[in-house]
Amino acid sequence: MNLRNTMGWEKYLKPFLYKELPPTTGWSAILGTLCALTFIIMAVTGMVLAFYYVPDPDKAWESVKFITEEVALGKIVRGLHHWGAGAMVFLVFCHLMVSYLHGSYAAPRQITWITGACLFLVVLGLGFTGYLLPWDMKAYWATIVGANMPNQFPGGGTITRFILGGQNISGFTLTRFYSVHTLVLPACLLLFMAVHIYLIRVHNISDPRERLAGEALPPYTGKPYRFYPEHTNRSSLGFGILFLLLLLLAALFIPHMEEQAGTFIADYLPRPEWYYMWLFQLLTFFTGSWEIIGTLLIFAGGLALLFGVPFFSESKLKGMGNRPVSVAVASTFALCIVYLTVMAYAGVAPYNKTVLVPSRPLTAEENRGLQLYVDQQCSYCHNILGQGGHQTGPDMSNMVRKKRSPEYLANYIKDPQSQMKSTTMPKYVLTDGQLKDLAAFLLSLDFRGGIEPVERNCSDVLEEAKKTAGK
Ligand code: HEC
Fold it and tell me: Of the residues 382, 397, 417, 421, which should be mutated to test ligand 1's pocket, given the most ligand atoms within 8 Å of the CB?
């Protein structure tokens, strides 16, 4: 048997392996290859994890703990999957930025860009769905916050219900996420990856000398840069370093796991995974009636930008040196993301220091409500005019605009689920009088018609509460 012939060496494999890439191809071209290779790590470690993982709300957390603590090499496999996920998001993002900077999306590579953008979204989706699977507090909250985002829009409730698999986060949410994470999204990823790689093969890697679409390039001269051995060598080196780094991370740092979902921790602060932190921070800038517009704007604008690049950036110039505007845009964008991430971690909105109230004197009832609001740390999840902790729940300055009645508010705080099934706000055990006070305070937060907000110091408010109580 002639193996070379049976495998189609001359006709298919040889041209495939020895394909000539532009001789000016730089190291950044390995980013795409690294994404594909990291996906292999994710697929293999994911398959191993699936042997032991149980997608059941009562057992998921235990099973992840079991994998980490009992299964031979389980810690390493889970670590690789965890850190690999972060690496993959990072690499896909870098690959996207570099392709943008090089102008590689220009004709005839528009579809290559679009499939790349789809891959980026699929990878983010894998991150989001994978996040819930350990079923710990962090996962639970991030999922609720994420899934509730469409809820703000008319008709969005259906989307939220579809994501959660019902009114509420439950076992159905978990099985749904598991199936999407292990079947649906990987299938999409493979499909888009196939088209993406096929198109790169068809149009080759973009060459900085290309200017106008269709203009023939002078033939490559000098030392050739081929897929094999030049590109594969570079990629192997890059991947070797990446893999060692991930192994090291996996060996040294066990992915942090919080308490099992549903554990009641009163002062719990939900946070998304690091690559969503900037978005989390960005969303906190939109308050009041801007809340909905802001969310819509960010998502629609982000998608339009991502998919629109090949259509509204018609620059025919390629190569980073020829594209000062793109470089400026991309660096500003990257800086903003870094800045937002840092801000999110620094927690610039100190939830427990000040609280915004209307400048007019508060009635006695409203004042008692304010004291309760501070004392019960409602600001942990709620903002007032965008100021407070992390926007898990709606902005409290919206209650008048939403025409909430005092009874509704009191009932909501006493037993949130009685008013809204899908809510995740904890119940508060308060007297009817206290509930009335709180409701009055929330309804006093009406900043329309030129009423100015003023800052009140939380410690002063509590001090005052003590004094009145002592009287
Ligand atoms: C652990 C986070 C958390 C804390 C702490 C919290 N809430 Fe909430 N709250 C939420 C969430 C989440 C929602 C809404 C969920 C939704 O819309 O699906 C909500 C909704 C509300 C609503 C209903 C708003 C509306 O438009 O119907 C009111 C009123 C409210 N909270 C008041 C309070 C008060 C008062 C406190 C303090 C005593 C408080 N919350 C503490 C998370 C929290």
Answer: 382
